[in-house]
Amino acid sequence: MKNQVQLITYVDRITNAGLKELKALLDDELQGLFGGVHLLPFYFPIDGSDAGFDPIDHVQVDSRLGNWDDVKRIGDDYDIMADLIVNHMSAESPEFKDVLKHGKQSAYWDLFLTKDKVFPEGLSEQDQATIYRPRPGSCFSTYTLADGSTEEFWTTFTRNQIDIDVHSAAGKDYLNRVLARFDHSKVNLIRLDAAGYAIKKPGTSCFMIEESFEFVDKLAKQANELGMTTLAEIHSHHMTQVEIAKRVDMVYDFALPPLILHTLFSQDCQALTHWLEMAPRNCITVLDTHDGIGIIDAGPMDGLRGLLTENQIDNLVETIHGNSKGESLQATGAAASNVDLYQINCTYYDALGQNDLDYLMARAIQFFAPGIPQVYYAGLLAIPNDMELLNNTHVGRDINRPYLNREKVQQAMQKPVVKALTKLIKLRNSSPAFDGRFTMASAERTLTLSWTAADSQASLTLDFANKDGQIILLDRQGKETQVSLSKLLAQA
């Protein structure tokens, strides 16, 4: 995998077209910016109840976007990350419809997880209270079979997302078929979506239990044998990320986005530096994704101390709501459907009050922190909260899932903050120093992040009190280049 910035995008929402048009966009308007691309679910259908994360057919490219050959063509020039949706599949899938029709006589009965498979003696109140819930409501949905009987199926996220029994032969075969399709189509990075919820065990939280680690470890090794790198997608306490990083190729640094916001809001980098001292080095860094801004990753959980205190988390959330003029409040929690309990739905740009310099400072920290940086398409273009889409769909996360086209991309690329950001991306991609050793130094309101390789150096010094940053690059010939973030923005 290239040590370069990667793009996160829906194929259709950035192009208003398909995979061929995305390849053209990467090669033209976005040329030189990205070494790889995370293609958010492009399986059939892309417009289900959870924007593609509820596939009817995980091994079929939605024909509106193209086909697997189009995926391969992108893979000829870029690293491709794709989602292996480990935990569930659509209730509209032929397999689940067959289960509803034939019940336990269905060839696919063992593919899906029912309540009684985990709790054959019944679910006690204590068991129910122990199960960790990422969203409001029950983790079970009752379906009526063709013979009139009813069955309670595990639905961790929504009623339309039926959990897979990954221990069953049918479940293993399902995941194997998806892996084989990825391998054949030049997908070399696999995001294990919702992997922490895949294993259920009585008397536990059914989230990131020891058996979950074992499952992820085994799945990662299986992918490695096919030449693919795995990335575990888990929102949880920050020490969970540290632990699971030992079991997989890569993890997300989900603690980084809220910590950067806290640092910029408070002008205090103590929590951020504390995290960067211990954070996994085999990580993908993000500020924004197709989901909301994770809060749980930096806060206390189940009696464990967080990187931020409860009061600091509360202040962070309220500041985001204030900076976004209350728009994030309309998209978060009980205010919108299909929400997560641990995320604030808002663009990162609006979380910072659309302050261009703060936004550039945040991206600079991300690019200089350990890990491979990914930039979400809306964040790349500094697109504000899409309130029109939110009001139309009433899905909280749609506030940060805008529908664009090539013309809108071209227009956004002319914004000063986007011009400055693209220069910052090219700087991150071009310096070999980022293949070297990471060091860090901090004072009361300043932070320096440095990279040193055999023949090059790169450092970022941030002054949070005076709101500016200075980048110093030293190349192989000993030539020094200095870049001020405020000047980079002013000259854009």
From TrEMBL:
Protein source organism: Shewanella baltica (strain OS195)
Protein name per UniProt: Sucrose phosphorylase
Keywords for the protein's UniProt record, in alphabetical order: Glycosyltransferase, Transferase
Pfam families xrefs: Alpha-amylase
CDD domains: AmyAc_Sucrose_phosphorylase
Amino acids binding substrate: D50, R191, L192, D193, E233, H290, D291, D340, L341, Y342, Q343, R397
GO biological process entries: carbohydrate metabolic process
EC number(s) on file: 2.4.1.7
GO MF: sucrose phosphorylase activity
